[in-house]
Amino acid sequence: MERIRNILKKCLAFILGKSKSILVTIKPSLIAICMGLIAGIIMMLIFNPSETLSGLRNLLIGVIYRNNQLNLRGILTTLHHSTTIILTGIAVVFAFRTGLFNIGASGQMMMGAYVTVHVGVLWSLPAPFHWIVGIFLGVVAGTIYGLIPGILKAMRNVNEVVTSIMLNWIAASLLVYLVNRNVLNPFTQGGSQNIQPTAIIPRLFSNYQLTIGFLIAIAMGILAHFLLYRTTLGFQLRASGFNVDGSKYAGMNTKRNIILSMGISGAFAGLAGALLFSNYGKTLSTEVHVFMEGFEGISVALLGLGEPIGAIIAGIFLSYIKQGGFYMQPAFRPEISDMIIGVIIYFTAISLALQLALKKYSGKIKTFIKRKHLTTREEDEQ
Amino acid sequence: MTYKIEMRNITKRFGNLTANDQVNLQVKKGEIHAILGENGAGKSTLMSILFGLIPADEGDIFIDGKQVHIKTPNDANRLGIGMVHQHFKLVEAFRVIDNIILGVEDVNKGLLSYQEARTKINELIKLYGLNVELDALIRDISVGQQQRVEILKMLYRDSEILIFDEPTAVLTPQEIKELIAIMKGFSREGKTIILITHKLNEIKQVADRCTVLRRGKMIDTVNVIDVSINEMADMMVGREVLFDVSKAPQAVGESILKVHNLTVKSPEQTFVKNVSFEVFSGEILGLAGIDGNGQTELIQAITGLRPFQEGTLTFKGIDVTNMSIREKYELGFAHIPEDRQRYGLILDFDLQSNLVLQNFYMEKFQSKFMLKFDRIREHSEKLINRFDIRSEKGPSTIVRNMSGGNQQKAILAREIQKPHHLLIAVQPTRGLDVGAIENIHKQLIDERQKGKAVLMVSLDIDEIMDVSDRILVMHEGEIVANVLAKDANINELGLYMLGEKREANNDGAHS
Ligand SMILES: Nc1ncnc2c1ncn2[C@@H]1O[C@H](COP(=O)(O)OP(=O)(O)OP(=O)(O)O)[C@@H](O)[C@H]1O
Ligand SMILES: [Mg+2]
Predict the structure, then answer these.
(1) pTM metric for this prediction
(2) Ligand 1, atom 6, residue with closest C-alpha
């Protein structure tokens, strides 16, 4: 009896946010995930009530366990697809920790992708060097493309969100132009040529898609964490992110920090594009569009609570739900998992924003609302 | 008898730290009740509990003998409790009258109209002498007037219990006098007042009784007429406090900082007009003046936080006019900034990181771009002990959760221990308790004894007189007086500060 009461008490404290464990920190993400699943269940009940239970099971564990056996392919495919969004997630997180919003991860990723494909198609190098050089130069391209909004922000105080969005579209058009000009597939005319076999990144297991790119992504998450929390550079970047005036007072070069942070963020995004297009059979299309993975990075960063390690976990999780949606077929359309992901992201953003707003602006919001009342009343009087 | 307010056995813990430990507070109706205690003693915490900002872990509250449960500030308002916080909570872009009325929504007297409100406020203004322009924007009025708006807000809500958390820390001497008169008026009208302050002479002037807290525990409640200022200080600190600042003579040495024809402007306004002066090693130069006469801008220009349009800076013979903040830091500048939360600290960093904010990149704390956390921790523990910085979790406390006074101590510790020749201290003792002030004054004098140059800016004329060797007075962006402290008297300095008198030809150097 006593024990049950204790547990209840703890649950209550947890919901009210009074106990200070790791659970409290990840609470917004957990709540959001629950909301997403509830929304998913409601959708399933509407479309196909009799299959809801089995659909839910497939969604939740189909990736791991299917047809009475371990679903190795499901697991490895999930990890494979998580690689890109983990990296774009890390890119967003890194800038965010410096107080910047890198909405341009897509553009940086596209530049990385193009350069890697360019090297992979047109250059001739022996095996390990070819893909290594291709990916490396892709990272360089992403870095340079990330530096542009950073420099504009530092030197001219141009909002990085605005420039990043514009640069995304510039990258999309530039990409098509460059593909058409340099690496167009003469037969299909609709995309780039396949990269040479020497430029393909090695797989971890020959029968599965998963490449060493996934390991690189994990390593990057750890590296980003390390950079932010262990190095002098991270110290400065985080200081500027929290308090620009305070960092200036402390003699830090806040302008340089902004540029560096955007450059590093661009490097992660560039790596995402480079790794993705070092896969067997991946080609660039000649239609003008902005890569969605960059925006998914924002979702990953949100769900990962702005931490690099969080981005790894969130990236794998989102990829897992997506793959789970695939296994819900044919009873349900896999888009249900997209919807669940959408709701999850929506709620993470809301609960984070709410928490922040409550903390920072509770007074201001209150008075703002009151002010509105007031003005209307004053008008009434006249 | 029944007390107006009675708080019984209040306990509040933050993690391992007990901010209030079985505290009892009894306040009579119509009295002015002071709460006294060192930085971090738990005063703000106790009042936040009474005002419903944070919940107590244990204990009961009684108002007029009836037990009450105050969970939110709205509950407090309904019970007639109002509070003026140390950092005002006004909406800068709104008019005074709006700010006053905004509070009333909470009480839900939905039918009040603007005209009625205006009449009521004007009555309150007349009754208590709280002069303030109702249609001015908050951002256009002085800090002292903003405080009056906060007070009017409480009165407008018909508060019977008025809590003031360090109300005088931000006021000029004249404004303090006026506030004291206003508080006495409240008590005559039968309102009950709780006053938190570190200034013992204020308690002596206005308070009837005084409750002393020390490290979260209630020590005693005394009648103010029965005790001397010294006794109060001893009770609060738990040891004897020396009020006299004793200074051994110290020879003034070479010129450390030379400011020459410095002008600071914005497109709209000139803050500092052609100012020149020198600070020498072995002296404390006090910069006095009424708030808003260019002191802030002058110091920001010298330290590098603000660009300046004309003039040169020379530091030990080196031209530092165009040097970065870090270069100046490395040459030997130390700076205790005026706005500690905005400039002095990264509030979301922990204490140990804040203590190496400017020198984290140096050999001592870094190798190959990696921070040496063990060294940083060691360093912070040393400073925490030496400067008695109190906090919940020591080096890893997030600075935002530290009491105001302890935040200030952290900055001071960081700046004084760094190798330097010049210490620029802007309002170094703002918000500190007498024990800590005594300690800081001692540190400043130690600095001078070690041959450092100290430039101290203070709005507190007593502090300027006690600590400085030489005094500059600023008025409307100009230096209007340069006198040796031993030759100065308060009345004369007052005239300089008001701009009613100015010294003929002064060049800012030694007279
Ligand atoms: N939100 C919080 N989380 C953790 N600790 C806190 C929090 N608020 C206050 N404390 C701690 O409780 C103690 C008492 O703080 P409080 O602000 O009441 O002190 P104070 O007497 O008002 O001091 P000061 O004169 O410096 O303002 C301090 O040690 C402070 O660090
Ligand atoms: Mg306080």
Answers:
(1) 0.75
(2) B401
